[in-house]
Write a structure and sequence with these properties.
GMP Synthetase, Chain A, domain 3, 21 helices, alpha/beta, binds 5'-O-[(S)-butoxy(hydroxy)phosphoryl]adenosine, seven-stranded mixed beta sheet, Rossmann fold, eight-stranded mixed beta sheet
């Protein structure tokens, strides 16, 4: 969505305000707004206090060491994330508390306690060691939503191996690119999973990816633990079954003391080039922010049942399905499948069944639920809910109000959380016991976070519109891009110098200091809360033999937020047919993954370019949105846009 979207114009006139209810505020983990001033007066002292919430094997010597644009937090300190997620809960009543409640698409339920999870993680950690994995090695994880995916993460963290999770919806090509970029030694995958009743043949996809990798020595394959196993082939000497390797492994495995700055994981995300960036997060600072935000934003209490609907393939799944909830000793729900399978009320059925109290999802899902009707949530008992969250994209005020009324019964605070793969944890949102929430508005920066609006020159704009920037490092900041520190500096710290982190989003800020985040200002799309680079889709299109040139832009979409519109020119005498159009869409889905499938492919004899040959995406966006065209005077050939527009109107009406 762009800043000229009418929805966001309304925000400046938003007058509805929702202060915390007395009941909520009385029990909240944070009840006193003075925390903001205290954190601002001494940010390092604030973070140091927050770090004390975790178990450290040895204390840190320095809190922060900032050599712009590189930072180190809690240097000299050692800890282990798996220890903080598991071991430290075993001495008290949490030992037998559910760590995860998993539900399969077809309704099977598996519950694992902290003690059981600890044993399983230790066994798998020992198995990984036996397979030759040691500290610093990279391990790729390509798994559906299953408890074993969390075991794999925690087992890596336990022995100091660096995990790189690849969303199971990504294609074999996307998987092999990511494996190759960080030279993973081992891949953990599954025979398959379910999505909308369809079998996802994951091992087959992994096998295809492995045809073009050179670093993988072993593949561990998890057999879906309930229901029918999916047939797959195992390669002798390379592939082993998860259940075989853990069978005789010891349930004791000491957690490796990790330096605060040792890498915990790499997670690839899209940028403005065709090549995804391996975002690097380290151990100490990341854990501190995961811990703090669970306590402060989600207000987690001992008896909560917390459900974040994100897939572990995204950063939200890392921080708020696994590490944050487990560090705080919460019970976290994991659901295997889609929100509309078998019925459009599957989520509400799960909330009612597991008595979910804290619920965190994406605006795209909320907008889909709105379309499916108010009667669906009304059929279920949602009275257990006490807090709702939103993440991944701007939430339009209408969707916010629907969420508030139909899911939260006008009783639950809503936290609209802005953050990124790069930030590791939540950066901007209200504190539910303190902040007055406004529909469509993410709220103030978290305590200790120096998020600001800046103008084109990098000067702070107290209120108005501008670019979202962060003026001080925070503990869970990305440390670099794997193998490409230059790109790290260039992407985030070149526009206004090495002290200012540029997030890539445009935003507005009101007089109360609250942010309304509008969306990306670079060539990155946000489709259903997932980040997709236009260049990635363009490369996938030109990879097809019929395509000569392509340009991809975002187009406002009622449910997805943005949809992908692709403009292509064809080679030689190829002509666009409905079959070719479908084939091109399928080609993109095959090259990248189904999430990148374009909604519309528009064919043109030529693309609008400046005289120096640069494609004018701005005009393509105007065409895709059906808007009046902006300035066309710099076009090399003005006739081109007329023909494109004709094509567009014919297709879209
Ligand atoms: C981009 C980051 C953070 C985890 C999920 C996405 C957009 C995220 C919000 C929000 C408006 C938001 C931004 C950001 N975004 N949350 N609450 N309001 N926009 O992680 O894939 O790294 O994408 O998502 O554009 O830059 P990601």
């Amino acid at each position: 969505m762009t800043s000229d979207s009418p929805v966001f114009e309304d925000l400046l006139h938003e007058e509805r305000e929702f202060p915390p209810s007395k009941d909520f505020a009385a029990q909240a983990n944070v009840r006193d707004g003075s925390i903001y001033e205290r954190a601002e007066a001494d940010p390092e002292g604030y973070w140091e206090d927050r770090a004390k919430e975790l178990d450290w094997f040895t204390p840190w010597k320095t809190v922060m060491n900032w050599e712009p644009p590189h930072v180190k937090w809690f240097e000299g300190g050692t800890l282990n994330v798996s220890h903080n997620c598991l071991d430290r809960h075993l001495d008290g009543p949490r030992r037998n508390k559910a760590a995860f409640i998993w539900e399969g698409e077809d309704g099977d339920v598996r519950t694992v306690t902290y003690l059981q999870l600890h044993r399983e993680v230790c066994r798998f950690a020992n198995a990984l060691k036996d397979l030759g994995i040691s500290k610093g090695d990279r391990v790729a994880i390509y798994l559906p939503m299953m408890i074993e995916a969390t075991v794999a993460m925690l087992a890596c963290a336990r022995i100091g191996a660096i995990h790189s999770i690849v969303f199971a919806g990504f294609s074999p090509d996307s998987l092999s690119d990511r494996i190759n970029d960080s030279e993973c030694k081992l891949l953990i995958t599954a025979d398959g999973g379910y999505r909308r009743g369809q079998v996802v043949a994951l091992k087959d996809a992994a096998d295809k990816a492995l045809e073009s990798t050179h670093s993988i020595e072993h593949v561990v394959v998890v057999k879906r633990p309930v229901g029918e196993p999916f047939p797959c082939t195992m390669q002798e000497g390379r592939d082993v079954w998860y259940h075989d390797v853990i069978r005789d492994a010891s349930p004791e495995c000491p957690a490796e003391p990790m330096d605060a700055e040792d890498v915990l994981f790499i997670l690839y995300t899209s940028g403005t080039t065709g090549k995804p960036k391996g975002i690097v997060h380290t151990t100490g600072g990341y854990s501190v922010v995961a811990q703090t935000t669970m306590q402060y934003v989600f207000d987690v209490h001992e008896e909560d049942v917390y459900w974040c609907t994100a897939d572990i393939g995204w950063i939200t799944g890392h921080t708020y399905v696994v590490y944050g909830p487990l560090q705080t000793g919460a019970t976290s729900v994991i659901y295997e499948g889609a929100p509309n399978w078998p019925g459009n009320d599957r989520f509400w059925e799960l909330v009612a069944k597991h008595r979910v109290t804290l619920f965190y999802t994406a605006p795209t899902a909320i907008r889909a639920f709105m379309k499916w009707g108010d009667d669906l949530p009304a059929k279920h008992d949602l009275s257990s809910l006490r807090l709702l969250g939103s993440v991944g994209e701007p939430i339009n005020p209408e969707a916010w109000m629907w969420y508030h009324r139909h899911i939260g019964s006008e009783r639950c605070p809503i936290v609209d959380t802005w953050w990124q793969t790069e930030t590791g944890g939540i950066m901007i949102t209200g504190l539910p016991g303190v902040t007055t929430m406004k529909p469509g508005c993410a709220g103030p920066p978290m305590p200790g976070i120096a998020a600001e609006l800046v103008d084109e020159k990098g000067a702070v704009v107290p209120h108005g519109a501008g670019l979202l920037a962060i003026l001080r490092p925070w503990p869970s900041m990305l440390r670099t891009i794997w193998g490409d520190d230059e790109r790290y500096v260039e992407t985030y710290f070149s526009r206004f110098g090495p002290e200012i982190y540029v997030a890539g989003d445009g935003a507005k800020r009101d007089k109360a200091g609250d942010f309304m985040v509008l969306g990306r200002i670079d060539d990155v799309l946000n489709v259903s809360g997932h980040r997709i680079g236009t260049m990635e889709v363009e490369s996938a299109l030109v990879d097809h033999p019929a395509v000569a040139e392509s340009a991809v832009v975002g187009k406002t979409h009622e449910v997805k937020g943005q949809a992908i519109a692709a403009f292509v020119t064809l080679v030689g005498d190829r002509e666009m047919t409905p079959e070719l159009n479908d084939e091109l869409k399928a080609h993109v889905a095959e090259k990248i993954g189904a999430i990148a499938r374009p909604d519309a492919i528009l064919y043109a004899a030529d693309l609008p370019k400046t005289r120096s040959g640069k494609i004018m995406r701005r005009l393509l966006r105007d065409i895709a949105e059906g808007r009046a065209l902006g300035d066309t005077t710099t076009l090399a050939d003005p006739a081109v846009v007329d023909s494109l527009r004709g094509e567009y109107e014919e297709k879209e009406g």
